[in-house]
Specification:
The protein is mainly alpha-helical. It has 18 helices and no strands. It has one domain: MFS general substrate transporter like domains (Growth Hormone, Chain: A, Up-down Bundle). Helix 3 runs antiparallel to helix 6. The radius of gyration is 21 Å and the shape is globular. The protein starts with a helix and ends with a helix.
Length: 455
């Protein structure tokens, strides 16, 4: 019986165009995950004059809205699949709406009072996050429907992360470069950045939407239910799937760590390395090695298992991040080496858990019946969003506690030594500790290749 399953069409290699169309969606997911995380808090504190703690609260509040709606969108996606046989319409809607709202987020007119500017950014970014979730939640659910084989899912997600890594480099280095091309008018620089980035993100999302299968039959149609029951369904998924709980908690903690480092990068470049170009070099150092290493994590996953590869990648990232504590005493270009090692670890921390999630969904379908992929996708996106939001929050708390001074427009202020130390801590020891804590749930992840191949 096992041999019959392994020779079935469902286990044949995925067509190259399917892998490519799915991967190109990471232009959208990578762009949206990177650019706001990199520049939004910095935009609020160093251009709009919003205090550091208030900036963190505003960004977090917008992300909290995202967390609230993700499980609901997951349920809607499952219902759409049951009724129409595809998740595609929600994905296309998100891809079309995001560029407009993203541009609006960075379109605050010069001279706007900091309080009003903060509210503007909050509302516009909340709409942007909503459009992104309409795409992201069903997008995450697709691998379990596109591939039923352990290794084919690894291949699908490995190439997605290759594109994701490229997107992080493109937006992380290119976004600030576009912004800084207009040093005399930072307001206009941010707007140009948002228009260009928003269009590229939207195109990637719309193109990838067409990889969603059409005419899927035999899927149960979840009953129409209240928002409270949407959350109850998500909590039930957490309660009944131990592998999902372990994987999600590890990924959430690591999202806090990477979100904090991402938000701190501009501050490190400006106030520790004293170079506006350093943020571009930081991203090249981070993502250049990751582009090369991502396929190697796929090879490692096939040889030692995804969960062991994920563990090794996390340890590498944590050690490299901890070493950057030396910036307190020796700021300099040497930092690009540990950043490169962080990039190598980050590649595995992205590709491997994403490849493990479809395994979890497939395992749950076997144990509890099909029809919950969208719920898992919604809970996963909510966890990732929570982590990235908390990363910005942790950074803003550290900045506020160490006396960071906000500024507007082209105004330049000298930061107190304690604030500079807070920036370094946010870029080194704090994310290292968070990654170390994430290893506890990761070590409790129980699914193995042998068990999944028996399905």
């Amino acid at each position: 019986m096992t041999a019959t399953r392994r020779s079935s069409p469902a286990r044949t290699a995925l067509p190259g165009p399917t892998v490519a169309r799915y991967a190109v969606g990471s232009l959208g997911t990578g762009g949206f995950a990177t650019l706001p995380g990199l520049v939004l808090v910095f935009y609020l504190t160093d251009t709009l004059g919003v205090a550091a703690l208030a900036a963190g609260i505003l960004v977090t509040a917008a992300k909290v809205w995202d967390v609230i709606i993700d499980p609901v969108i997951g349920s809607l996606s499952d219902r759409q699949l049951g009724h129409r046989g595809t998740r595609r319409p929600l994905m296309i809607t998100g891809g079309i709406g995001l560029p407009l709202f993203f541009m609006l987020t960075f379109a605050v007119p010069a001279g706007t009072a900091p309080g009003l500017a903060g509210v503007w950014v909050f509302l516009a970014f909340m709409l942007t996050a909503t459009a992104f979730s309409l795409f992201q939640v069903p997008y995450i659910a697709l691998p379990a429907e596109l591939a039923s084989d352990y290794d084919q899912r690894t291949r699908l997600l490995t190439w997605r992360v290759v594109v994701l890594t490229f997107a992080i480099l493109l937006f992380g280095a290119g976004g600030p470069a576009l912004r800084d091309a207009f040093p005399r008018d930072p307001y206009f620089g941010y707007l140009v950045m948002a228009v260009v980035a928003g269009v590229v993100i939207g195109v990637g999302m719309v193109v990838s939407s067409f990889v969603a299968p059409k005419g899927v039959t035999g899927m149960p149609v979840p009953a129409r239910t209240s928002i409270v029951r949407h959350y109850a369904t998500g909590i039930r998924a957490l309660r009944t799937s131990q592998p999902f709980r372990a994987l999600l908690l590890a990924y959430l903690l690591q999202a806090v760590a990477t979100g904090e480092m991402l938000a701190a990068a501009n501050y490190v470049a400006k106030h520790v390395l004293h170079s506006s170009d350093a943020v571009t070099f930081l991203f090249v150092a981070l993502i250049g090695p990751a582009l090369l290493v991502t396929p190697l994590w796929g090879v490692a996953a096939r040889r030692i298992g995804k969960e062991r590869g994920f563990l090794l990648a996390s340890i590498l990232f944590g050690i490299a991040a901890l070493s950057m504590l030396l910036l307190l005493w020796m700021p300099g270009a040497w930092v690009y080496l540990p950043v490169a090692l962080c990039g190598a670890g980050y590649a595995g921390m992205q590709s491997l858990p994403m490849a493990m999630l479809p395994d979890v969904i497939s395992h749950d379908a076997r144990e509890n019946g099909p029809g919950r992929a969208g719920i898992f996708g919604g809970m996963w996106t909510a966890g990732e969003t929570t982590g990235m939001a908390l990363g910005a929050t942790v950074l803003s708390i550290v900045l506020a506690a160490t006396g960071y001074l906000a500024s507007t427009g082209t105004e330049s202020v000298s930061q107190p030594p304690l604030a500079v130390a807070g920036i370094v801590l946010s870029f080194s020891i704090v994310p290292a500790v968070l990654v170390a804590v994430s290893l506890v749930p990761l070590l409790r992840y129980r699914l193995r290749k042998e068990e999944l191949d028996e399905q």
